[in-house]
Amino acid sequence: MSAWILGYIALGVGLLLVIRWAERRLPDEFSEEFIHFTLYPGEKPAQVRILEALVTLSEVLGIVLYLPWILVWSVYKNWKARRAPRNESIGPPEPRFRATPDNLADLVTVEEVERRECIDDPLGAVPPLPFGHLHKTWERFRADLLPGDELWSFASPSEKGQWRFRTVRGYAVRREGAIVAEMVADGG
């Protein structure tokens, strides 16, 4: 949230508290007396004059005390943001995969993967295709393979589940020694 908005809200809350406090201290017949005292300002009782002075003083102090701090804070934040080191790297950040070179298991072929991942659902709710409902995702993944790419199966430990550690299983594409894509087959 911007410093201006925070300062504005703080000033408004402070002013609201002062007004509420003053309302409780003023007489019940405030509206009638207000009209009378507005027409005849010399006849105001001392209590009303003191409360008016306190309200005015709190408004002035609120502006005088809060506004410079808000301005200083805003200038400091802008100055700090300009001095912060910028990311000078070109291009998108490296993608983060679950598969790492340490948890690559077997070098496999597309045909092996399709044979392993063919779904056999006795109820017929899932199509009898590799990866079932995710078959189109598999087709896109397979289409992105380039000549010379290696297709590896992997099993990677996931975050701690509620009661146990889970293993994420899937397939990763290794190109020139680096993992460039993956497809999760079983999320644990």
The residue ranges in which pLDDT falls below 50 over 5 or more consecutive positions are: none
Structural classification:
alpha+beta
The percent range for strand residues is 15-25%
Strand order of the largest sheet: 1-2-3-4
* Proportion of residues in helical segments: 40-55%
The count of DSSP E runs of length 2 or more, i.e. the number of strands, is 4
Compute the gyration radius: what is it?
35 Å
What's the overall geometry?
elongated
Distance between the termini: 39 Å
Q: What number of domains?
A: 2
In sequence order, what are the helices and strands, one letter per element? HHHEHHEEE
Count of helix runs: 5
Largest sheet: 4 strands, antiparallel
What is the residue-mean pLDDT, rounded to a whole number?
78
Polypeptide structure, described:
A four-stranded antiparallel β-sheet has the order 1-2-3-4. It contains five helices and four strands; from the N terminus they run αααβααβββ. It folds into two domains: 3-83; 101-186, no CATH class. It has helices spanning 3-25, 30-39, 46-83, 110-116, 135-143; strands spanning 104-108, 150-160, 165-175, 178-186. The protein is an alpha+beta fold and 188 residues long. The longest helix has 38 residues, at 46-83. Helix 1 (3-25) packs antiparallel against helix 3.
Describe the SSE topology.
Elements lengths: L2 H23 L4 H10 L6 H38 L20 E5 L1 H7 L18 H9 L6 E11 L4 E11 L2 E9 L2
Antiparallel strand pairs: 1-2, 2-3, 3-4
Helix pairs in contact: 1-3
Brief sketch in words of this structure:
With 188 residues, this protein is α+β, with helices and mostly antiparallel strands.
